Amino acid sequence: MDEKDLINLWNKKRNQIIMAQISPALVLIAIMVLAAQGTFVAASDAAKYLAVAVAAVTGFLAIVSQYAAIREAQALVKDLGKVSKPSALATKIASSQQLLSLTAVAMVGFSLVTFALVIWSILG
């Protein structure tokens, strides 16, 4: 692949990460609104467990797809670093390895904290 193809692929990976956040964000918004209205206080245990399960599955699938995109992007930055006579943009992207690693760790950490808060807001 040449530099242009690698940069286009980089942009697709970034877009995949962003798009994978939309569904869980919508689920979290719905749960937040329902929790703020006190809906879960009067809900049956089955409804509460269903809400937790939906949040868990949606979040897990988003994390898996985001993590896959990050892993592929990590390989991409290595390839981009091997391009002869890279542009300034290619050089900047190629230096993103640590940022990608930090993003993967932060994504998992924030997801665990958010899921704990979801459980608390629904069952607590």
Total strands: 0
Structural class: mainly alpha
- Calculate the terminal CA-CA distance, rounded to whole Å: 52 Å
Number of domains: 1
What radius of gyration results from the CA coordinates?
A: 19 Å
By DSSP (H or I, 4+ residues per run), the number of helices equals 6
* Global mean pLDDT: 91
Q: What is the correct CATH architecture?
A: Orthogonal Bundle
The biggest sheet amounts to: none
Provide the CATH top-level class.
Mainly Alpha
Question: H/E order of the elements?
Answer: HHHHHH
Helix content: over 70%
CATH topology: Topoisomerase I, Chain A, domain 4
Which shape, going by the Cα principal axes? elongated
| Residues in β-strands, percent | under 5%
Unreliable sequence segments: none
Summed up:
By secondary structure, the chain is mainly alpha-helical. It is 86% helix and 0% strand.
Task: Please describe what this structure looks like.
- By secondary structure, the chain is mainly alpha-helical.
- It has a single domain (3-123), classed as Topoisomerase I, Chain A, domain 4, CATH 1.10.132.
- The protein has six helices and no strands.
- α1 (3-19) packs antiparallel against α4 (45-81), α2 (22-36) runs antiparallel to α4 and α4 (45-81) packs across α5 (88-94).
- The protein is elongated and about 65 Å long.
- The chain starts with a helix and ends with a helix.
- The relative contact order is 0.16.
